[in-house]
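Note on ligand handling. Small-molecule inputs were canonicalized before submission; formal charges were left as drawn, and no protonation-state enumeration was performed. Where a ligand contained multiple stereocentres, the stereochemistry in the source SMILES was retained. For pyridoxal-5'-phosphate, this procedure yielded the string shown in the input block below.
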Amino acid sequence: MKNTPLSIRETMFAQNADKQLFEQAKSYAFAYMDEVNQRRVFPADQAIQKLTVFDEPLPDTPQLAAEILELLDEVGSPATVAQTGGRYFGFVNGNTVPAAVAARWLSDSWDQNPALYVISPTVAKLEQVCEGWVRDLLGLPSETVAGFVSGTSIATMCGLAAARYTILKNQGWDVNADGLFGAPPIRVVASQQAHGTVFKALALLGLGRNRVELVPTDAQGRLDVAYLPKLDANTLVILQAGNVNSGSFDDFQTICPLAQSAGAWVHIDGAFGLWAAASPTKQYLTKGIEMADSWSVDGHKTLNTPYDCGIILCRHRDALVASMQATGSYIQYSENRDSMLYTPDMSRRARAVELWVTLRFLGRSGIAELVDGLCDRASQFAEQLAANGFHILNDVVFNQVLAACDTPEETKATLAAIQASGECWCGGTNWQDKPAIRISVCSWATTEEDVDRSVQAFINARSIL
Ligand SMILES: *Cc1c(COP(=O)(O)O)cnc(C)c1O
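Structure output:
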């Protein structure tokens, strides 16, 4: 038989048929899972330098897929940050529950696009179920609808877009048709410590960063109600469930009724903190959130779904749908859930699959146990650090701890030594104008022993100065 090379299509049919590539990827993934907790948490310089291997010209011809996977594992994997281990405390990066990763592998092989019901009835159904479950877990009003987006940044943008639409509509202005030029002004009220993505969303929506009426915060970074300006029906109020540094929660019970009686729109950025509502012991932190108009939250932080899981929740379906509206002669909406009505994007991945699996795997009590576990490890961290001469700068009410040494210089040098140690990883921040070490306990895999070992890494880092 003549030995003609396979066409690229024949090659791919063969890859799907013999499954070897998938077995290969699975074996790398399993090896990664087995050793992640023995790795340096932040990769070694040597591993990072080796990434230059990827700086090559685009190949002129097809390459061997098995060799590509091998290269990815050999060069890419050692330079990953070991955040699925138990000693990564950077940003508010969650881990992933194993059931969700497994389901994602399956769902990736389906390659569904949830834009419209007719493109994926399965994902439309799972989104509808997740919408109800999340609404229920967080104690939000029964009319609340959900859109599944990439993260809280986009979820916040959606909530603020719905607010913009509604506030202007109430003044007889159609922002979708006529834009913002010449529109009546919208007031925006937010705390001085609103998350950077809130200001980004305001900028994207033409509401401007510098027009915001910034309200001073108290010692924990909560909006100080004493400085809240008088609200009216042209006002958008942006509150926070979980300050990104201290983990503190705004006083929803006081502010939401004020906003409600003034006819203002309240959006709550609850990227990681909104899940407090799902824990009987932490629920007190979110009292009053049900009086807001829209909420943004992540699955990929506290809930530990894989990345790419943000949720916009809005109690005014019409406002959200009007703000996300897209038309085209070929887009035919159905009687069922057409997901693109609730999101800025049309085509996207079926991210609700992992959310559904995570919620169903954990169940109500498992979610509470997960949230409480993160908070307990954070408290343990704070207590042990304090016992070893570190200063704890915040009231540890959730999963965030801010720590410092005796002087700003010592804090900075200690943080650099912790990061270089590979034992654990924390980021730095500025808290009340001084450098601080920021610890976010956000992984189900963090054990009491991981905290012990990380506290030891802090002590060692300080003593080598
Ligand atoms: C992480 C975070 C965001 C941004 O969320 P992404 O999912 O990264 O887009 C917004 N607000 C707060 C309080 C956060 O912690």
